[in-house]
Design brief:
This protein is mainly alpha-helical and about 60 residues long. It has a domain at about 20-60. It has helices at about 1-15, 25-60. The chain starts with a helix and ends with a helix.
């Protein structure tokens, strides 16, 4: 039982060391993630469109 108490005490001690981002940093990071997500989505859409068109054309020929 002592090991469990020590384990959770260490977790609390480590959690106190955590520095959380302020609102401005959080919004900036969120913006970067959303931009990368949008760019990745458009890229994957275009690649999928290219492959499906190519495969569709090949299937119709043969």
């Amino acid at each position: 039982m002592e090991k469990i108490k020590k384990f959770f005490a260490e977790i609390r001690a480590e959690a106190r060391k955590t520095t959380w981002p302020n609102r401005q940093e959080l919004l900036a990071s969120t913006g970067v993630v959303l931009i990368i997500l949008a760019i990745s989505s458009v890229y994957l859409f275009l690649v999928d469109l290219l492959f499906s068109g190519t495969l569709g054309a090949l299937i119709q020929r043969f």
